Amino acid sequence: MTDWARIARRIRVPLGFALAAFFLWIARPTWNSILLGTLVAVPGILLRALASGHVKKNEELTTSGPYAYTRNPLYLGSLIMAAGFAIASRSLWVAAIMLLMLFVIYLPVIQAEEAYLRNAFPAFEEYTRTVPRLFPRATPYGKSAVMFSPPLYWQHREYNAILGTAALMAALVAKLMWASR
Fold first, then answer.
1. Interval 112-160: pLDDT, tens
2. 7-45, pLDDT tens digit by residue?
3. Domains and CATH numbers, the chain
4. Exposed, middle or buried by CB within 10 Å (0-12, 13-18, 19+), for 152?
5. Are 43 and 80 in contact (CB under 8 A)?
6. 3-state secondary structure labels for all residues of the chain
């Protein structure tokens, strides 16, 4: 793992909280932008939830569920959620910063995680040849009978994505209501 990837991995969550504060400060929401942003964010939440119920971190190479379509469904879900937040905020600055974070923070982390997986799981190399890094393929990779595991979902605390999204959207509603007073 490169030094920057190590730093990016550590700062991505605190940076996300800082971005949320900036997001709320600069946002210019309308009822329609909040509704549309929420409708865009929900599939990202669902993708992250589904992915978390399949992944067994550091134990096995996960190729079932959404991992049969993309190597990084959790990050794809986060990207979809970020698009929803950008739409809800009605701010090009928010959208630009989220894109910047994708390239400067998340891509190096993804590359570092893939280097780890390549070393830990010999089958990862063949998996990378057929399953795209981020944007999904149309047909599933291989055949898997592995089903979604609710205990894995709870273990990974993926419900925090729902809570965080609800809190941010509620804050936008509060900001909108406050501004209309």
1. 999 999 999 999 999 999 999 999 999 999 877 788 999 999 999 999 9
2. 888 888 788 888 888 888 999 999 999 999 999 999 999
3. 3-179 (1.20.120)
4. middle
5. yes
6. CCHHHHHHHHHHHHHHHHHHHHHHHHCCCCHHHHHHHHHHHHHHHHHHHHHHCCCCCCCCCCCCHHHHCCCCHHHHHHHHHHHHHHHHHCCHHHHHHHHHHHHHHHHHHHHHHHHHHHHHCCCHHHHHHHCCCCCCCCCCCCCCCCCCCHHHHHHCCCHHHHHHHHHHHHHHHHHHHHHCC
Name the band, by pLDDT with cuts 50, 70 and 90, for residue 2.
confident
From 71, 89, 67, 68, select the one nearest 19 (Cα to Cα).
89
Model-level pTM? 0.90
